[in-house]
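Escalated from tier 1: DGJ holo job.
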Amino acid sequence: MPIIYNEKNKTFKLDTDNTSYIIQVYEENYLLNLYYGDFIPDCFVPGRDKRTPNASFSPANPVIGEHGFSPDTAPMEFGTSGAGDFRISALEIRNSNGDSVTDIRYCGHKIYDGKKEIPQMPSSYVNSDSEAQTLELYAKDAVTGAAVTLYYSVFPKYDIIARRIRVTNESPKKMRIERAFSLCLDLPDMDYDMISLYGAHAKERNAERRPLAHGIQGIGSRRGASSHTQNPFMALAQKGADEEHGSVYGFNFVYSGNFSALAECDFNCTTRVIMGIDPDTFSWELDGGESFDSPEAIMVYTSRGIGEMSRLLHRFYNNNLIRGRYKTEKRPLLINSWEAAYFNFDSDKLVAFAKEAKKLGVEMLVMDDGWFGKRNDDTSSLGDWFVNEEKLQGSLGDLIKRVNNEGLKFGIWYEPEMISPDSDLFRAHPDWCVHVEGREPMLGRNQYVLDVSRKDVRDNIWEQMYKVLSENNIEYLKWDFNRNICDAGSALLPPERKEEFFHRFILGTYDLMNRLVTAFPNILFENCSGGGGRYDPAMLCYSPQIWASDNTDPIERLYIQFGTSMCYPASSMGAHVSACDRTGYGTKCNVARWGTFGLELDPTKLTDEETEIIRNQIKDYHRNYELVNRGDLYRLISPFENPYRAAWQFVSPDKSRTMFTLVTMRREFRQHLIVKLHGLDPNAYYRNEETGDVFSGALLMNAGLVLTHIAEKSGESVVICFDKI
Ligand code: DGJ
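Tier 2 regenerated the structure:
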């Protein structure tokens, strides 16, 4: 049983295959965290319950007495505001008296097999109840009547614990949640580096590592989206931990809106980590009897290095987060019209793309931005989701038939949460854009954000989408989101609920996405936000793949893909080959084959030689689909650490096949290079698919591959595959 309650010590023990997490019900029903780390058989860890208080400056509970336990220094399971714990708080509730002292104490629990869904929100799931067990810990503020449920779903096989909270107002009076984080973890030391993923549009998810220091440090977003600028992922890696060694805690937030992930190191040199909705742009009013559910946060621990942390998350997301038909079914390889034509296309041009692409082995054509309203540039028509038949020179149905006749499926682009000032929708409903009374909202890419916190707005957009999608043979949908949100407000929200807007907006987005995947389960859905501006675990619940970046330069992509792989699986990573000329097509394809390979170019303009390279690469992509989609990733040489090259490797789950890729970014003076492979069976023998050479797994992992005069020049690359014999 992964979750046990130990009566004697009053502890809860949450075990995965390799980890243990221990919660104690302490005196006066304080909930403490005694341990999170490698598996231990014990139910209690002595000496972890209290730490030296800060003389008379650490408040004492009047019943327990002074000079022992203080919420200021104890490892609190869920740190709250104003009741003696001065560290960053995971929960703050303002009561009807106006104060925000929040003091929750244990009052019961429930343990059960499986895992419940979160109302209205995406979250991880179980395929069968035997995959996970859930602990619901009940805690209550006896003075205010705020009741809190702390949820822990333990997935033993992946060393994952999924966490969230629910706050219920059990008093007859109103209360306001000022902050409600999903996860709080107190660690007994601070000898960690924080790893996070910063970026910008076209430069997403750069891995950054910095030592923890005393005080508060962290990342977040207030942009109305999980954002390009900081991904909702944070890891704490033991000093010196690398890809293969050392202890690492990973935290990933299943949410697409404003977030905050913080670590505070206190005077006792301990660390508190919290992750949840950004409290500065959030509050939520609860009437008597009402509840609020936080989004989910995923927590993983391993002592086998950063690479293993990533692989655990990848496996978990592939099995317990991504869902729908294309979770397991092979996804069609696509060509997208955006970089090939931008807004400048008609049916003939698209059909010509389809015809040439078919010869390359492509399986689907995606018509990107520009097919609706009167949109020929980015200044109009968002919100007018009817087909521009004049531009297409015919109906959408006819175009799709022609593409299907060329042997390709057909996909389409939408940006449902936006509205152009120059649109019929805006002229009819000027109050449907996100705005605050009396201010003209700011523009972003010439557009406003549509207020999808409103049901009437969502119904309108959904009806428009439903018409197009149900009347046509559309098999893929790219959902874009091309600006961030300011002037945050909704005409329908009363003043005391204005701060609920950002979260209500995201709930509205999830509602629309849920309608889409429910009504059209066979449509392959790809998420996008100006590239990877909403690349987060929540989006993976709706769309199994996400367009990783608008930057398709293969060298820049190395950084983006290495960073993305920190927590997100290759199966999710939209990676296309474009016409940009930094390297030849060989390297462009080798890099794009890390993800959900596709083309973003005009295939009628390729030379014969380029056509041949791409055709062969596509064959290889199809052959290695399972290996990349389901295999284990090993990051061998990181571009963030090595200025000359990047290398990575996929290994099939049964270790029978591996694909090694190396890309040279800059020439180095070296006669030969040795790269050690990982993850193979040391006792098995592997044959090089191309040369037929046979080596033991042990040799490939310990002596390594010797690359002499291979992929030496900048922009060159090599892929080598081995099969177990
Ligand atoms: C941003 C996306 O990232 C691009 O791929 C493309 O779809 C454009 N938007 C279209 O406006």
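The mean pLDDT is 97.
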